[in-house]
Design goal:
Length: about 150
């Protein structure tokens, strides 16, 4: 569930002194959402992991989850180093890494977002990122019901 992924994750962010702001609203009277729970947890984990890895000391991660009658919306926003606009169109490509030195030290190979995009596509959804260098990044996912 979203809850267990976020709980596990908050332990990690505590260690890095990064605060996790959890704004999850899942109650809209109709809880039915069809999806592969394991994959959706993996998706959430990839986005939170990046928000942690590329954050600044004492930064913040905001997780927003909303349900509407038509879709599930997930937003992960960080206060990290950001992504230059010329790199932004490529971050969902396999093995594409913007911050190479940092990625290597934290074990990244540039697959996380490619997997995230694949999971979103498999659910018929959309994923996009907005970013400002030095200010932070927001990744937004929309998944249709059914
Ligand atoms: P891994 O395969 O372990 O996920 P990774 O983090 O390098 O490694 P991706 O998750 O695919 O790979 O991300 C691709 C690149 O996009 C990263 O190397 C990083 O440079 C950049 N990036 C991704 N998320 C963020 C973020 N929240 N803030 C800044 N840069 C990011």
């Amino acid at each position: 569930t979203v809850e267990s992924t976020v709980m596990a994750f908050s332990l990690l962010s505590d260690k890095r002194e990064i605060s996790l702001v959890w704004d999850v609203q899942l109650t809209d009277g109709d809880p039915s959402f069809r999806g592969d729970e394991e994959r959706l947890n993996q998706l959430l984990y990839i986005l939170l992991d990046n928000a942690l890895k590329y954050n600044k000391p004492e930064g913040e991660i905001r997780l927003e989850v909303r349900k509407t009658p038509q879709e599930l919306q997930i937003g992960v926003t960080d206060t990290g180093i950001g992504i230059p606009s010329e790199d932004l169109p490529h971050i969902f490509d396999r093995f594409y890494r913007v911050h190479k030195g940092r990625s290597r030290s934290s074990g990244g190979v540039g697959l996380g977002l490619a997997i995230a995009a694949w999971i979103v596509k498999a659910h018929g959804g959309r994923i996009r990122a907005e970013s400002r260098v030095g200010e932070g990044t927001a990744v937004k996912v929309t998944l249709p019901r059914q």
